Amino acid sequence: MIVDYWPYWLAFACMIVISLAVYAGKLLRQLKHQTERQQQLTLQQQQALATHDKKILDSVVIIVRAMKEEQCDISEGCWRLSVLLDSLKTADDLSLQFPAIFELYGAIKHMPILEERKQLSKQQRMKFDLERTKVEARLQPSVFQAIEELHNYALAKIGALSNS
Description:
mainly alpha, DUF2489, 6 helices, single chain, transmembrane, membrane, Coproporphyrinogen III oxidase, transmembrane helix
């Protein structure tokens, strides 16, 4: 009796195998499409980060040039540079590469600016100015060396980001 049904069982088994093969093919196509989408998203994210960093580095170059030409105070330049460098997405530990810039920023970041500074008494402003001037005088040679290195770094990084 079992012998009479073997062609049916064989056909049923073949249908199951074919169904599983079709389902596996469908899953493989979905995986391929998902992988392609993920790669596209990753590429778009990298391009967005590169665009962001290029804008930041363009600003860094402008500030460094202004500092070199003495159009920008050392303190203000270091303040702006440290904030910009901290916002870079594709670079790490720039505070270790350019410690003088971050040291000067760390020494002056507690000082009031803009409206807060205007509200201080003349004596308090002079006290902060003296403190800032001392820090600037102590760090000036290392800051100018660091901004030269930063200028070269930023230009090289801009070139690399433009090529990618």
